[in-house]
Specification:
Three copies of one chain form a homotrimer. By secondary structure, the first copy, chain A, is α+β, with helices and mostly antiparallel strands. Chain A is built from six helices and twelve strands. In chain A, helix 2 packs antiparallel against helix 5. Chain A starts with a helix and ends with a helix.
């Protein structure tokens, strides 16, 4: 029987579990954050396993980037999630894991692809978390496959360096009582990092951070349109700095752009140590989440327009619009190519 | 004492479970919020069970008030918590449950009383949550016992009515970058109410709310003094309004008063429905938590003084000081009486 | 790629996840109850999936029995658990699922078999939980394999009927202050069943019940010997009655027998509705757990002898001794056969 064989193969892995009430909102839709968290767990396991197949320090795979990803179909309580992960590229110090999330209705037997994403990890030594280990090379089916991986590697490397500069920006605070403004729906949550959130070397799992980010973004979206909302997509997320056990994490979400039927929400994650005040707050992660609003038959609803106040909000709106148009053009190009 | 006998009798109950890593902070101290949550669960079970021993609508006991309570000793991961609850007074529409929290070190056999509190419940019909059912009377050991219960009942009733007025007050927002000011440590968290937070009729358990309150208060305290902090006591908490499943709860904590070795933190809980915008935010609960700062041997440390800005903060500081002095006087009087 | 293929095959399934701090005791040993709960989830998924491959009412597989199972090796935080389940026999109204629990150290690559067990399920209609559906037959590799399955089926059926009578027995209460008596270590916990504990038709997952049972048994064992204790084995467990959402579950454990290096603990699970007091308590499950005591190098320690009080305790001790000797004889016979 092939079950345990797939498990032996160090280059692929499958996680599965039942979706529970706590994974979903009141209407029964599983939160996007749960999907991201499970995908990251699969990536972390396969990445860590792969990087320890060599001699030298034992190490853990730490998430440094998730490529843009789309939520293709809603998932419900009682369905079984199957997450499969495969290592698809290795550079000297990083590896790419492609992860698929399938949802199976075990009552009808129906299966659907709910999400797929590419995650980048680097192996950090357990002795010294700042020491990045070398990644054993994988074998490629073809030279072409390797070349495509190398291109993806170069592209994400460049983008990670670009976004580094932006991370120092500070979050302006002003809540606004007028409905449909940015200030009205802006929301923050504080989370005290606990043992269950952490890896063996006491840093927060990337998946836990993404779950918190999705939670805040969902609250922002719901506050703006007062309907059932779901995560539609997430832009590339870069994990600039690690978050240590015992930190306080502040996750803030604010609307940046609204199209006819979607909302773009910027989510900023700031961390600070509870007991070492001198070190101060730092920006650990930031990303853009896109949400849509659904009616009772799970069909997209129009979204109320955003009331803009001031130049800063206007600038962010324009930037969001550019991202929206770019991603729309890409989608259309992909569709054309596939036909 | 006959644990399971008392368990048969519908007027007392015992809950126990192991303390786990997620129940505690990094140093291993169990959060005060976990203690309050377990005590409320015991009260809810015994109250609900008692109120359903009569004919009529089935009902659930909803928490309306917790009397001031003190944390007598720290509790650690690996200890077993024993929570015992007993119904000690019944009025026509409410009942008082006295709850004790013992911590047992199962390796040494040592047991210590960690907390005791009095909780007040009212039975709400499962058909119509606004309908308050009648409470079956309990039997008292003596007329004196009944009379004392009646006095406690009258006292809390009066206090609950007094605090009602204060609940509409709005939370001033200003975070302040200067250390040891009120604005510097002020913190808020947002929580989206999930199924696990709720009772059978889809309202948040009082214990869940208290756990969130303790969490925010702990973050405020730690931000102020950057040390290991623990809950020392909680002033009486009144639950003014119920919080429904699907609500967004915003819990805000701010320092009000600081003595040599303790911090008083006011915690305000505001709730709003995610999908029914028209209803708006409402103040559901508010309370004062007192925290102390501990060194590595669990001994109290001096707390940095609070820098006051403006009249409002000064007024709240004076009020806090009055509560502090009053509670100190009470404690001394009790000690004198016991000698 | 073979990953998704194994997932397609309806007769086998794999669940895996990282072991977290909350899954383990202070020393880092994963609780036996977590192992049992994950194994039951795998069995429930594969059983439910299989029973819905036919037309007729949609149904869920409800656990009715777990065969005696042994914990072969300790599991630690940070290891990855792989649970594989396979349907190995089907009768008209029930199915047998054999489940293996492997623990993988992803840092060293080491894998070990931690547990295997056989679970029996019956498919209950989602429309009417009392209606037992028919189970589609599986194909056997050989007639011999089918015949062996049929024998296991008959044996467990007979045993289930025998134990039915015993379930009405009531738990005698007297805790005893003298150390090493039955009353001294006897423990109870009460749990209010929440949504996350339940299946789609609002009955408690068998795995959730087993986790609670293991928790109580662990407390009893630790109280008796004041050392690090782990689950060594669990006797066959019969699930006599289902437990509904909103129930209060009382789980009681008491020592029955002690050999040189092991403790047998009887665990009884009683359930009652929170709001329908008149319906009364009923015995839902009962089982015998065997624990051992470990020193710092994970080697078994001698266990303090049990002080017996009265005829009832003596009778239970003798029965436990008979089970112990029988299971020891079986183990020796198995070892002889394998040589």
């Amino acid at each position: 029987m092939s079950v345990s064989q797939t498990c032996e193969a160090s280059s692929s892995l499958q996680i599965c579990r039942l979706m529970r009430p706590d994974d979903a909102n009141i209407v029964g839709n599983v939160h996007g954050g749960i999907v991201l968290k499970m995908m990251e767990e699969a990536g972390c396991i396969i990445g860590t396993r792969h990087c320890n197949t060599q001699s030298g320090d034992r190490c853990l795979a730490a998430l440094v980037r998730v490529e843009k990803t789309e939520f293709l179909t809603p998932i419900f309580i009682g369905e079984v999630a199957h997450v499969t992960a495969e290592i698809t590229y290795t550079s000297k110090h990083s590896l790419e894991v492609q992860v698929k999330f399938m949802a199976e209705n075990i009552l009808t037997g129906a299966k659907k692809l709910a999400n797929k994403a590419a995650l980048w990890y680097v192996p950090c030594s357990l002795q010294n978390v700042e020491k990045i280990m070398e990644v054993p090379a994988i074998k490629y089916a073809s030279a072409e496959q390797e070349e495509e991986g190398r291109k993806r590697y170069e592209a994400q490397k460049m983008e990670r360096q670009e976004t580094k500069a932006r991370t120092e920006e500070v979050m302006p605070p002003p809540p606004n009582p007028e409905q449909h403004t940015v200030g009205f729906s802006q929301s923050s949550l504080i989370h005290l990092v606990g043992p269950t959130d952490c890896t063996l070397h006491n840093y927060v799992h990337g998946g836990v951070t993404m779950k918190l980010m999705d939670e805040v973004a969902g609250i922002v979206a719901a506050r703006h349109c007062n309907t059932n909302i779901v995560t539609a997509s997430v832009d590339a997320i870069n994990f600039h700095r690690k978050i240590k056990k015992g930190s306080v994490v502040t996750v803030t979400g604010r609307l940046t752009f609204i199209s006819n039927k979607s909302m773009e929400i910027e989510v900023l994650v700031d961390a600070s140590s509870l007991v070492e005040a001198e070190k101060g707050k730092y920006r650990a992660v930031s990303a853009f989440f896109t949400f849509i609003s659904l009616d009772k038959d799970n069909k997209p609803l129009p979204v109320p327009p955003l009331k803009i106040n001031g130049e800063e909000e206007q600038r962010r709106f324009e930037e969001g619009k550019a991202r929206y148009l770019q991603s729309k053009a890409k989608r259309l190009a992909n569709q054309a190519r596939q036909q």
